[in-house]
Fold this sequence. Notes:
This protein is α/β, with parallel strands linked by helices. 68% of the residues lie in helices and 10% in strands. The protein has helices at residues 18-28, 40-50, 66-75, 93-101, 114-213, 219-232, 234-248; strands at residues 10-14, 33-37, 54-58, 84-88, 106-109. The chain has a 5-stranded parallel β-sheet, with helices on both faces. Strand 4 (84-88), helix 4 and strand 5 form a beta-alpha-beta unit.
Amino acid sequence: MNHYPPSKPSILIIDDNITNIEVLAAALANDYEISFATGGAEGIELAGKYRPDLILLDIMMPGMDGFETCRRLRGGESLPDIPVIFISALEEVADKVKAFQAGGNDYITKPFQPEEVRARVATHTALYRARRELEAREESLQRNLQELQTAHQQLKEMSSQLLQSEKLASIGQLAAGVAHEINNPIGFVNSNLSTLKKYAVILLQILDEYALLEETAPADTRRRLQALKQEADLGFLRQDILELIDESI
């Protein structure tokens, strides 16, 4: 019994008669890997363990017959598609119908001809292997399709991120341009206000000097000056003018 998938198709013979097994093995050994079981339960166990490419199944066996063995093979999760060829001495149509109803793919009547056995086995193993190859290719295509879909989704997300980055870059350039256009006049105004503050301080200092001369001025001049100071609220003006400039800066 091979433990790994053989290079040649594998055949499992389930028959309680060793002579039948030897005759079948001799007819098929050149082209197939042969394993065998002498009972239905053992055959089901080996089939599930090694998954042969085809099963040759006798009907008349003690304990579990071929019909029940085939039904159980078909009921297994991993074995429903393995081709089963019944080989039996039963020739009645009802027996053949029962074999197909149990899940058999073909039926050979004993005594069998080796040439017929080889031909039928070759046909079913070729079909089975071709079907498995198609299934494997379909699975591979499905995986490739899934990978392509995933890659396509990633490309869409990357494209969206790139577009968003380009938008942000454009906004950044616009903001830089706006900032440049705003900074120029703001810098101009700020410079002028600083100069204006210096001028205001100088003018206030000059006013202080003139205030010292006010006491020596004629009475009419002093009255006019006092009236002007009250009208202009000179004390408030001296304080507020520098605060206004500082706030504007």
